[in-house]
Amino acid sequence: MSEPVLLRNVDVPDGHLLTTYEAGGGYQALAKAVHEHTPDEIIDLVKKSNLRGRGGAGFPTGMKWSFVPKRAGKPKYLCCNADEGEPGTFKDRIIMERDPHQLIEGMAISGYAIGAETAYVYIRGEYVLAIRRLEQALAEAHAKGYLGKRILGSDFNFTVHIHCGAGAYICGEETAMLDSLEGKRAQPRLKPPFPAVEGLYASPTVINNVETLACVPHIVARGPEWFRGIGPDKSPGPKLYCLSGQVRKPGLYELPMGIPLRELVEEHAGGPLPGRKIKAVIPGGVSAPLIPERGLDVGMDFDSLAAAGSMLGSAGVIVIDDSTCMVKVATRIIEFFHHESCGKCTPCREGLNWVVKVLRRVEAGQGAPGDLEQLEALCKGIFGNTFCALGDGAAMGLRAALTHFEHEFVAHIEARRCPFH
Amino acid sequence: MREKIEVAAARYPDQRSAIMPALLIAQKEHGHLPGPVLEEVADILGVERIWVYELATFYTLFRTEPVGVFHLQLCDNVSCMLRGSEDLLRHLEAVLGIEKDGTTLDGLFTLSTVECLGACEMAPVMQVGDDYHGGLDIARIDALLERLRAVTGQAIGADPATTAPPGE
Fold it and tell me: How close A235 comes to chain B (CA, Å)?
């Protein structure tokens, strides 16, 4: 796949403007959708494409859409999850800053498919440039009749509003995001009912990630077979990979789903910094368990990474080299989860507090024999015992560090200092 | 403020949803969100005051205490830490003569660390006001502080030299 699809416009000057987007065939997929297809046909196309959600969970998008009741007797909503907060992830920001019309077209087609007339983009408040660009693009799309009443002469009405987040990682969890949109503290809801049946304002709601929605116009324009021809059949499509950390060429890369992690890091991102060796890589944001160097031949897709004991998550690939203390990395990750715990579930709220205390003392050379067993006991108490996946992600991440780099934790405790300082 | 909040509120079928946008508007106007401002927001929207208080204290972008003219928000999450954010924090504390979460005596700078800003391709990153500054090292931090001091009271533009294109 040499030709970029999702990133086609990002390096083009004025790639964020409607004129640029239209010049590349933009909004023709929307026209095709509303003039040539019924909503059910669009859902079928997306089902056939095997598109899976790019926000982290990898749930089949077409199936998610098909759960929306046809006759609800209530308005239906589409929500775009643009609360990109998973550390190591920046793909959605770049789409919104540099090619916002791709997202808007994807939202309009998705809204048509599920029968929604109103959509909200929940975008993190820090993304000021992305918010400005998206506001400008929405105004352009309205003025040109791609949004609003009777879109392109059809019976389809669709409006998109921006809702700015205010700094809470938990809003990336879809039901917490709905509570936040309703003006409450963001805390996950018990499921069922699932949002497709009872979501925003207790109405049927579909929540999709920015990159997922950006795939939709291309599937409509080029067909589901094209999409499935890229990468593994069960987890196909073009994919955005966010490379960061101790690597020569950090940046956003569009490559096929399923590309080997080693090729991504060593060839595309230029490998480790001069004089360094890669020690481990976090493949999908800090919720994804790290993979030691010897495991880098794994394919970057939902199923291959799950089989390897990790996950694709948001494809936030963080490279860690041999100069770095893994106890320090684990401590920083758990401090993050502790800070972002919404406080609803005791195992996450209190458990992570204790994990942070133990990790900090180990890193400071004040660890005691038995601390590693204590950490595992805490992980066991958190994992599977919370409403949402935040606590699970923390426990899985810590367990991976303990499993693959136990010798570093032991060295801290025995030497009573950090060997890297 | 009232007019802007009412425009924002029209986007939702429920006034409670407008509390977050209203707080962002109020904070832009007042710099931070003291009690009387929260009460005013509640009155404009006609919602319970407790609903407004609980959001103002739950979400980290809302500030109930004042900050300096420039709020330096240095990311210290993993990707930035791996590219030297700890050294930058120590340097900022030394040159500003304050500790993390402190404000300089002249009221110009408040220094904070924040969780991932979603700009890891240009780590280490710091947000100042609306703008991201990436690819930072000690020399660039010093130059940035100098620029900020020079334009006190004026709007600050992003530095194109410190924002890298994707894939590079």
Answer: 24
Q: How far is B118 from chain A (nearest CA, A)?
A: 5
Report the C-alpha gap between A233 and A133 in whole angstroms. 35
pLDDT in tens, chain A (421 residues): 568 999 999 999 999 999 999 999 999 999 999 999 999 999 999 999 999 999 999 999 999 999 999 887 899 999 999 999 999 999 999 999 999 999 999 999 999 999 999 999 999 999 999 999 999 999 999 999 999 999 999 999 999 999 999 999 999 999 999 999 999 999 999 999 999 999 999 999 999 999 999 999 999 999 999 999 999 999 999 999 999 999 999 999 999 999 999 999 999 999 999 999 999 999 999 999 999 999 999 999 999 999 999 999 999 999 999 999 999 999 999 999 999 999 999 999 999 999 999 999 999 999 999 999 999 999 999 999 999 999 999 999 999 999 999 999 999 999 999 999 7
**Which DSSP string corresponds to A262-288?**
HIIIIIIS--BPTT--EEEEESSSTTS
User: What residues does A78 pair with on adjacent strands?
Assistant: A119, A206
Q: In angstroms, what separates the C-alpha of A10 from chain B's closest C-alpha?
A: 8
Q: Give me the residues paired with residue B75 across strands.
A: B114
Q: Is A253 in Cβ contact with B81 (below 8 Å)?
A: no
The closest of A132, A295, A307, A283 to A234, measured between CA atoms, is: A307
In angstroms, rounded to a whole number, what is the distance separating the alpha carbons of residues B1 and A171?
26
Determine whether the interchain pair B117/A126 forms a contact, defined as Cβ–Cβ distance below 8 Å: yes
User: What's the half-sphere exposure (Cβ side, CA atoms, 13 Å) at A22?
Assistant: 10
With beta carbons under 8 A apart, name residues in chain A contacting B83: 245-246
CA distance, residue A332 to nearest chain B CA (Å): 7
Q: Do B115 and A336 touch (CB under 8 A)?
A: yes
Query: Do residue B21 and residue A11 have CB atoms under 8 angstroms apart?
Result: no
Beta strand A238-245 pairing with A251-256: antiparallel
φ, ψ of residue A196 in degrees (nearest 5):
-60, -25
> Residue B64's CB: how many other CB atoms inside 10 A?
14
| A66 has a chain B CB within 8 A of its CB | no
B58–A87 C-beta distance less than 8 A:
no
Regarding pTM above 0.90, the answer is yes
Distance between CA A206 and CA A216 in Å, rounded?
14
What is the rounded distance in angstroms from the CA atom of residue A408 to the CA atom of residue A71? 58
Cα distance between residue A185 and residue A170, in whole Å: 10
Contact predicate A45/A65, CB 8 Å: no
* Closest-CA residue to A21 (of A84, A106, A127): A106
Distance CA A253, CA A269 (A): 9
